Amino acid sequence: MSLKLIKGFSDSDMSIDIEGAVVIFRLKSNAFNLMTDIDKKERYQKLFSVIEETPEIKVILSIFAAGALDENSYAQYISHLCGEQLALRDLDSNWDFKQRLPRLRQMVFHQDTIKQRSASKKIIIDCLQGGVVTPFFGETLSADFRFATEHMHFKLAHRQYGLHPSGGLAFFLPRYVGESKAIDILLNIDTITAKEALELGIINRIVSTNNFELECIQLAKKMCQSSITVIATTKQLTCRFKDELEDYFNSETKMMRIG
């Protein structure tokens, strides 16, 4: 698949545009559908790989629609796994192996995507709107930059269902806020507003809702002023945690008793 074929790509889940040296992913729908469908997952990761191998591209910008990563999408995903509307339950303890298979797909999707993004020689930017629940809270911390609307909030929804903080959240969060603060957030905080996230340093900028997409694209284009070599070498020198991340995911898999 060539970059020419990628430009203008669109399906029910996402669309792709290219503006100069910036590739723009627009994620339209419930992102949990993308994670649990093997064909969709493979298509997404193949598209990412083609872009990664294209030297003229400097920035990968992902714009998530409001609602794509929020509490309702997460609740629908949990309900789909268990076949019922759920009250508060200790799901990590109660699911049998058959019920864990879609859960495993979700975990593998996040693990593969995070590894792919962390190894990228491009600038990775996530543009966040509305609620962002635990798994994607973690995954977005693997990006180089995060822009958010003033109404964006991170929701630590995993505790509601008795689940561990997946999406690499327990790996990346201490790198931003320190271990003690990270544990406090993971165990005691339900919601982090955009303003609080900016103060914590886990988002880089709050962007007006009115011109959100346009301003995010303009900010991404400004980052293209650096050469491809400068971007690639900076990423290689700052993202030196490949082995540590692999160990973390191995531990996560063993903890879930699915390895």
Write the layout of secondary structure elements.
Elements: H1 3-6, E1 14-19, E2 22-27, H2 31-36, H3 38-52, E3 59-64, H4 71-82, H5 91-94, H6 97-118, E4 123-128, E5 131-133, H7 134-140, E6 145-148, E7 153-155, H8 169-177, H9 179-188, E8 191-193, H10 194-200, E9 205-206, H11 212-222, H12 228-238, H13 242-255
Explain what this protein looks like in three dimensions.
The structure is a single chain. The mean pLDDT is 87. The strands form 2 sheets. Strands 1-2-3-4-6-9 form a 6-stranded mixed beta sheet, sandwiched between helices. A 3-stranded mixed beta sheet has the order 5-7-8. It is globular and about 45 Å long. It has one domain: Alpha-Beta Complex (2-enoyl-CoA Hydratase, Chain A, domain 1). It is α/β, with parallel strands linked by helices and 259 residues long. It has helices at residues 3-6, 31-36, 38-52, 71-82, 91-94, 97-118, 134-140, 169-177, 179-188, 194-200, 212-222, 228-238, 242-255; strands spanning 14-19, 22-27, 59-64, 123-128, 131-133, 145-148, 153-155, 191-193, 205-206. It starts with a helix and ends with a helix.
Quick summary of this structure?
This protein has 259 residues and is α/β, with parallel strands linked by helices. Helix content is 51%, strand content 15%.
What do we call the CATH homologous superfamily? Answer: 2-enoyl-CoA Hydratase, Chain A, domain 1
The total of helices stands at 13
- Mean model confidence by pLDDT: 87
The CATH C-level class name: Alpha Beta
What is the CA-based Rg, rounded? 18 Å
Strand order in the sheet with the most strands: 1-2-3-4-6-9
SS content category: alpha/beta
Q: How many distinct domains?
A: 1
